[in-house]
Amino acid sequence: MPQTNPFHAMVPRKLTDSELARAIRLDMEAELDAINLYAAHIEATDNAEAKAILHHVMDEEREHAALFWELIARLDPAQAEHIKKMSRKYELIVSGAPHEDVEAVGEEGERPASASSGLDKRLTVGSLRR
Question: Is the pLDDT of residue 51 over 80?
């Protein structure tokens, strides 16, 4: 898949943090593509030696993607804010909190999920059928 050249319209100068974050997102995309490609290669062979090498390389790509994600959060304050909110939203979503509680995360006057949802933290499939 062809990727956008992040430098195609740039004048010869240093990148701003915002421009660098955009470029790093493309780098991260390449890392994620590589992870998926290596996983497919692992699934497509029974060669133990090849699998061992591919697992090792794939793990390196995972590390690179994680490092890029951390760098993007430091270069892009808006992204960093979303990352902070998403951890809380994730927990609310998987606990079955009401949509309103999830969407209130990060807003002033955010309702605490435990007080507003009234949900039992021991959800079962049966309890979700209501």
Answer: yes
